[in-house]
Design goal:
- This protein is α/β, with parallel strands linked by helices.
- It folds into three domains: about 110 residues, no CATH class; about 80 residues, no CATH class; about 150 residues, Rossmann fold (3-Layer(aba) Sandwich).
- The strands form three sheets. A six-stranded parallel sheet has the order 12-11-10-13-14-15, with helices on both faces. Strands 3-2-1-5-4 form a five-stranded antiparallel sheet, sandwiched between helices.
- The two termini are about 20 Å apart.
- About 0% of the residues have low confidence.
């Protein structure tokens, strides 16, 4: 989401100028690649660009491809194959060993349905999961769609542009499947009369939202790192006790009596970091009433167990299901000592939880780093 917001910001700055631009989007990856499907790069004809589609090995060629798309005023799908041991092949130097399809789409600033305008519509809406369908290639005669079109899917009505009931049904089924597992996917479809359409079904999830319940000095590096990640940060505390600079960085600062008004969904993580035993105990009960899948508590394990035991004696027992979403002590075991290192430990654990990973050494992982279709 951080990359998308940066692209939108750059787009808004140039759309009333004489600068032309194209959007490069990774729509399909086979094998290994530094960036995955959904990575984007906004390329301006003045040589500047925002975002990226690789670790740096493809960007140079992408500049040329994007400029060509701008000149021709038509999108193009380019395949970069780094699986062959060919010194002349772009990307081989990085050792990616993957095949990457990149769609280059020239942007018409007057078209309110161009890819970036659709991204703007998604970001402007409040923490929803969006489905984008990007048409990457077509075979046969299609009347209402063309290569490069992006469809913001809300329901089956948005699929009428394909003008094929069978295709609409198959695409709806695939979308439902991808939404359920929260994963994007590339897919080919063939109609009864032999036409073929290739689409990138992108599941655009809300950015992670971290709710920090505390006001001590260790909240400062944590907020800075959260914003560097492109996540949202809400601080629950007396605003008078928070440094003005941190208040300007956070998305929201509010008092504990406003806690119930905060949007806390399944993409929200809560960290109890008041460094006050009684306060954390009270706040834990509040957080257990939310839908968050991550509740982090700073401090040693015995401290958390003491809180559990006291709540049990008070008739407010924490169920085993709820204990599964409580991480105490919070953070990955990286030997963190300073507030900055502790912040890194917390961020890494939260990323692992939302990715359904264990946060172990990658060299011990038995499968590929990223899931492959």
């Amino acid at each position: 989401m951080k990359e998308i917001k940066a692209i939108i910001n750059a787009y808004n700055k140039i759309k009333d100028t004489s600068i032309h631009a194209a959007l490069a989007t990774v729509v399909k990856v086979e094998g290994s690649s530094y960036r995955r499907a959904g990575a984007r790069m906004l390329v301006m004809d003045d040589g500047n660009w925002i975002g990226g589609i690789s670790g740096g090995c493809l960007e140079g060629d992408a500049l040329k491809r994007a400029r060509l798309a701008i000149t021709k005023s038509e999108p193009s799908l380019i395949t970069y194959d780094t699986t062959e041991d060919d010194g002349h092949q772009i990307g081989v130097g990085l050792g990616c060993n993957g095949i990457i399809d990149v769609l280059f789409t020239p942007l018409d600033f007057e078209n309110k349905n161009n890819p970036v305008e659709i991204l703007i519509a998604c970001v402007d809406e409040n923490r929803e999961t969006h489905v984008l369908i990007t048409v990457t290639s077509l075979q046969g005669k299609w009347n209402a769609i063309k290569t490069g079109d992006v469809i913001l899917y809300k329901d089956s009505k948005n699929l009428k542009v394909f003008e094929d009931i069978f295709l609409e049904r198959k695409l709806s089924e695939k979308i439902k499947c991808q939404v359920e597992n929260g994963k994007s996917a590339f897919q080919n479809f063939e109609t009864a009369d032999g036409k073929i359409v290739s689409v990138f079904i992108e599941i655009l999830l809300p950015e992670i939202h971290m709710v920090l319940m505390g006001n001590q000095y260790d909240i400062y590096p944590l907020v800075r790192l959260i914003k560097e990640m492109g996540w949202r940060a809400t601080i629950i505390s007396n605003p008078l006790k928070i440094n003005a600079k941190i208040i300007s960085m956070a998305d929201k600062v509010c008092s504990i009596d406003q806690f119930d008004n905060i949007i806390i969904d399944k993409y929200t993580a809560i960290v109890l970091m008041s460094h006050d035993y009684k306060t954390d105990k009270i706040n834990l009960s509040k957080t257990l009433m939310t839908d968050t899948i991550y509740i982090g508590m700073l401090g040693p394990k015995v401290r958390a167990e003491k809180i559990f035991n006291e709540l049990d004696l008070e008739g407010k027992s924490v169920s085993e299901d709820n204990k599964e979403r409580i991480y105490a002590p919070a953070g990955l075991d990286i030997g963190a000592l300073s507030p900055e290192e502790i912040a890194l430990s917390l961020i890494a654990e939260i990323r692992a939880v939302f990715s359904n990973r264990q946060g172990n050494f990658l060299r011990l992982r038995q499968s590929t780093i990223h899931e492959r279709n």
